[in-house]
């Protein structure tokens, strides 16, 4: 009996210690994602490109002409999995509540005087893990894009390079590292870098 209490105390302490590490990780991820996505504090690496590179000359699609708008994409990425998690947890909760008389149902949790049933607790936990995974994926993707400086397929279309500013011909020096962009849309050029 005393051994069981010791194991229970150890599990509670390790769980509390895990929460101490979880909050800074989540908070720093969200703050980093904000600075990467919504500010221009971190500039992309300046990479070079080939003269008249066909793979970088694809057409630029304006945001109002996109096949799937960004708002729809983000709402489906967040809402569809969250809805399926809620439906799955709802079905699991209904099955467990029917089996409650047999002792296999999860109980409610009392936190600060509020009772939370297992459906609400598990749904919030799994949706939270899903949202954290989306944010972590976006963070890693943005860091890799900024660090490598690889150009988007529409880079030359929005950059509109002035090859005469090079001082040499493209035949003698086909790889360009200077900034010779003459395009007007600086936001599109920055997003293409």
TrEMBL record:
It comes from the Eukaryota. Signal peptide: none annotated. Keywords: Membrane, Transmembrane, Transmembrane helix. One of its GO terms (molecular function) is phosphatidate phosphatase activity. One of its GO terms (cellular component) is plasma membrane. GO terms for biological process: phospholipid dephosphorylation; phospholipid metabolic process; signal transduction. This is Phospholipid phosphatase-related type 3. The chain crosses the membrane at residues 20-36, 67-95. InterPro entries: PAP-like (IPR043216). It comes from Pelobates cultripes.
């Amino acid at each position: 009996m005393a051994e069981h209490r010791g194991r229970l105390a150890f599990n509670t302490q390790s769980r509390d210690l895990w929460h101490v590490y979880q909050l800074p990780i989540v908070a720093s991820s969200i703050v980093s994602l904000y600075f990467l996505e919504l500010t221009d504090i971190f500039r992309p690496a300046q990479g070079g490109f080939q003269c008249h590179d066909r793979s970088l000359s694809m057409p630029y699609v304006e945001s109002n002409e996109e096949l799937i708008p960004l708002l729809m994409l983000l709402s489906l990425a967040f809402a569809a999995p969250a809805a399926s998690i809620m439906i799955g947890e709802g079905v699991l909760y209904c099955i467990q509540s029917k089996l409650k008389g047999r002792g296999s149902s999860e109980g409610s949790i009392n936190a600060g005087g509020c009772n939370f049933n297992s459906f609400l607790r598990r749904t919030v936990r799994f949706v939270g893990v899903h949202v954290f995974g989306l944010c972590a994926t976006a963070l890693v993707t943005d860091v890799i894009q900024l660090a490598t400086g690889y150009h988007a397929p529409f880079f030359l279309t929005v950059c509109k390079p002035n090859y005469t500013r090079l001082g040499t011909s493209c035949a003698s020096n086909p790889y360009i590292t200077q900034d010779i962009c003459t395009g007007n849309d600086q936001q599109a050029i920055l997003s293409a870098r």
